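hey so i finally got around to running the thing on that chain from the lab meeting. sorry it took forever, my laptop kept dying and i had to restart like 3 times. anyway pasting the input first so we r on the same page abt which one it is
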Amino acid sequence: MGRKVTLATCSLNQWALDFDGNLRRILNSIEIAKANGAKYRLGPELEICGYGCADHFYESDTLLHCFQVLKELLESPLTQDIICDVGMPVMHHNVRYNCRVLFLNKKILLIRPKMLLANHGNNREFRWFSPWSQPSCIQLMKYAVLSTKDTCIGSEICAELWNPRSPHVDMGLDGVEIFTNSSASYHELRKADHRVNLVKSATTKSGGIYLFANQKGCDGDRLYYDGCSMIAINGDIVAQGVQFSLDDVEVVTATLDLEDVRSYRGERCHPHMEYEHKPYHRIKVDFSLSDCKDIFLPTHQPVDWVFHSPEEEISLGPACWLWDYLRRSGQAGFLLPLSGGVDSSSSACIVYSMCVLVCQAVKDGNVQVLEDVRRLVSDSSYRPEDPRELCGRLFTTCYMASENSSEDTRNRAKELAAQIGSNHLNINIDMAVKGILGIFSVVMGKLPNFRVNGGSNRENLALQNVQARVRMILAYLFAQLCLWAQGKPGGLLVLGSANVDESLTGYFTKYDCSSADINPIGGVSKMDLKRFLQYCTDHFQLTALKSILAAPPTAELEPLTEGQVSQTDEADMGMTYSELSVIGKLRKISKCGPYSMFCKLIHSWRETCSPTQVAAKVKHFFRMYSVNRHKMTTVTPSYHAESYGPDDNRFDLRPFLYNTRWSWQFGCIDQEVGHGSADAFCISII
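ok and heres what got predicted. didnt touch it at all, straight out
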């Protein structure tokens, strides 16, 4: 036996229930791992069926097909002479478990069920699986570790790393030297460093080698799994995968010296100390990960992990998600109503970033991306080289003008479309709006007016909503028939562009052009989007964005004043986007109701607002939020990026019919306001 081991972990772009494609990508990763000299290959969580199967986990077909794929893997010559660690659901005594299946040379060594399930944020594992709590009396399915000729290997599964009682602690104390973690960890802005720090911490305390595998890509819903597979030893990262890419298979390998682990532990884990832990059942494996002739084999050295800025994450994550959605949807491109504002311009820039990534992937020799793009444009000889040219083939933008639209926004939209290369259309909606209002007038005998023309608030809002909803109808009409009119096959996916703050307050029209097929920015805050556009200005040299950033956000649904915009978003909402971002985080992340939020904000906003003003803002927000919460039940599926997103589908489960008076809660706030200055608000909530 030697002392150096070569190990492989990977990121796979698996797709829920795509058993053929998932099997192909698993075999490809094993082939690459073996070619790199690895004797152990780790894959992502539930990689055989895909992590996002949701209620399909209830179906016996899902279990059946997983075992059929496992049979193919066991019999494949590619899986010989390497320990393969794959993920799939397994049923035992009519109970479903999220499991790892470890096998070698056509023999299953261990079925390791997950013990600590993820049940927060977007995760709902308790809905489909049970945590393993059975005694280790079943021959194959148990909580155990592998003992090879030269080392000992123990498994963790995803959330077990995040848990305060992570298994790797006791496993390390029991002599396990190699820890593995198969994960399906989705992207959130500013989250990547959490994973890296957890992996480093896992082996800093008591030494060891840690392999982290993660899914990547869009596997069928709002989440984007962002790779970042890595290998660490004794608190140092020695090999890392990329966070965002269009590669379906990425394998990360490292050669490490087991004696480095033993030396590290010899100093830090004193052998005479007694630790309370249960010894792990060891499954003996007649196999060695090392080679006696490895003395000249170089080992991997520590690397510094360079994290993306939030602006880069917005540019890359949603772009990769859009690409997966587009190529797997069977459509031929995107259509976006481009208003010339920050939000729709952000969606447009993300599509352009996608085109940049596609061109780079083709240049780097990605055969799958080239095959996909040729299918999308219906040209078997096409080879994308210029992102602007590709954008013109895949992306249609349209400015939908009304009598309330300004020349400034029209010109800003036109200039941005020209710089990214989209196929840009100018559409006037006044004829359609007047037609709809004419129908109403004939039936009801009255014609509504804007507020500036003497109309009521109800009339004013209805007239704005008609314009917004006409744009949605026209967007879908052009998406379905635009390519048909040009003699081209296929249809277009409609992109939305409502940000997370507008969704939170309901500051959009239900079933307007925010109602789309998918929305790449629905989980991103307005403040982050502005910083993202500044990044695009510099990184992509999109100078048109400068005037867009300088303009006040506006819906342009009310009449102009002397040709200029008189309506602004922040005035309509009654608070700034910066304030909304703070309030959104308190509501979701800090779990604050009206009273708790008030108690926090009187301190953090004390330099700019009196307690009475804070109370007014909190009440105004919760009234808007509760009145408009019903809109979240039909909101366009959005890329999940922000930890305070109000997505009603799975992430933020709330009622949609509220008592909007909040009489008890607001009464508590009023009582505190009556007590005096902010210094009096020292309330401890237990």
